[in-house]
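Try this one yourself first.
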């Protein structure tokens, strides 16, 4: 039995038709009791960008994605141990971190933040990836 569960597999050929790519990826991997979530942006799982030009709105959608992926993996936001946040402009730090902070109130993860020159698509203003755990014996609340 594999200890790795790959969640929401996809191929970049369909995801990024404007680029010549052919990579098999997934949105999250559960490896034992650890969950690794791929960098999430302001795009929903149907491929619709939320918040064009608005870093806070993109962060809100990214965190919705993170929450959903963690739940699909058997964890939740309260079990995040590390976040890495990427922004393309230092002025976006405050609006993005306010949104992330709202979603992770009381969680106290370790955090790395980077200002970078760009992300995979020009309309993306921020990205966040997380690592979470599934504590031994933990069960998600009934009803999600």
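Now uncover the answer:
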């Amino acid at each position: 039995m594999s200890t790795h569960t790959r969640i929401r597999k996809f191929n970049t050929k369909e995801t990024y038709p404007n680029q010549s790519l052919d990579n098999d990826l997934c949105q999250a991997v559960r490896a034992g009791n650890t969950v690794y979530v791929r960098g999430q942006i302001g795009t929903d799982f149907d491929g619709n960008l939320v918040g064009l030009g608005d870093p806070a709105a993109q962060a809100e959608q990214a965190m919705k994605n993170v929450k959903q992926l963690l739940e699909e993996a058997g964890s939740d936001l309260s079990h995040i141990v590390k976040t890495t946040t990427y922004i393309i402009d230092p002025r976006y730090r405050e609006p993005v971190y306010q949104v992330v902070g709202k979603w992770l109130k009381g969680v106290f993860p370790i955090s790395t933040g980077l200002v970078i020159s760009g992300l995979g698509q020009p309309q993306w203003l921020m990205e966040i990836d997380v690592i979470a755990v599934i504590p031994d014996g933990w069960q998600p609340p009934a009803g999600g």
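Discussion: The mean pLDDT is 90. DSSP finds three helices and six strands in the chain.
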